[in-house]
């Protein structure tokens, strides 16, 4: 059996410790993009305000992506 990262509530663990490292967040975001938008496009990801949510959000943005606008 392979490695198991997902539980019933998603990926669990402490940020910065295995498996919630920056490298893992980058690899997970890349894999999600390949599956959810193989021809490009937009993927909407919901998150809460814990540090891991912001880490995954940053990892999932392409380097060329402009920052999200907070102004109206």
Would you give an account of this structure?
The protein has one domain (10-60). Helix content is 35%, strand content 6%. The protein has 2 helices and 2 strands. The chain has helices spanning 22-36, 51-60; strands at residues 6-7, 10-11. A hairpin with a 2-residue loop joins strand 1 (6-7) and strand 2 (10-11).
Task: Fill in the keyword field for this structure.
2 helices, 2 strands, single chain, two-stranded antiparallel ribbon, 72 residues
Total strand segments: 2
Order of helix and strand elements from N to C terminus: EEHH
Question: How is the biggest beta sheet arranged?
Answer: 2 strands, antiparallel
Q: So how many helices?
A: 2
Strand order across the largest sheet: 1-2
| Nearest-integer average pLDDT | 76
Number of domains: 1
Through-space gap between termini = 49 Å
Structural Rg:
13 Å
* SS content category: mainly alpha
Uncertain stretches: none
Into which percentage range does the β-strand content fall? 5-15%
Shape: globular
Helix content: 25-40%
Give a topology summary:
Blueprint: E1 6-7, E2 10-11, H1 22-36, H2 51-60
Antiparallel strand pairs: 1-2
